[in-house]
């Protein structure tokens, strides 16, 4: 059993969809900026891997350690949700309490500098270092 349906065309015109054009210079500028940031990140990673900047090296170790502790406490989706919530709430809280956060941040930064100076004097200065040779290929 077949049914034959005839549809009549409506007399309304089709909706107007605006033409979207992305300027070429905008795309080129974005690509150049992205390339610059990626190259800068690679340069930082190289400096960390070579061990020339011990401060960055220690910060990376601490960050990876913190990430491993957080990762062992929860699964990936929970960690992703926590990061999502934090990234959406911290900027709002910072805007609201900017003055108090900045003063605590300055006090904390001064304390971190003091502790790093002590650590540098007692531990890092006693680590023997060989001559650094940068091989060029």
Describe the structure.
- Helices cover 68% and strands 0% of the residues.
- With 137 residues, it is an all-alpha fold.
- The protein folds into 2 domains: 24-73; 75-126.
- The mean pLDDT is 84.
- The chain crosses the membrane at residues 57-87.
- It holds the Pfam family Reticulon.
Number of strands: 0
Mean pLDDT: 84
What proportion of the residues form beta strands (DSSP E)? under 5%
Pick out the low-confidence regions.
none
Largest sheet: number of strands, sense, barrel closure: none
Helix-residue proportion: 55-70%
Distance between the termini: 80 Å
Coarse structural class: mainly alpha
Q: Write down the Rg.
A: 28 Å
Q: Any descriptors?
A:
mainly alpha, 68% helix, 137 residues, 2 domains
Outline the fold blueprint.
Layout: H1 24-50, H2 54-73, H3 76-96, H4 98-122
GO cellular component, one term: endoplasmic reticulum membrane
Transmembrane segments: 57-87
InterPro entries: Reticulon, Reticulon-like
Question: Gist?
Answer:
With 137 residues, this protein is mainly α. It is built from four helices and no strands.
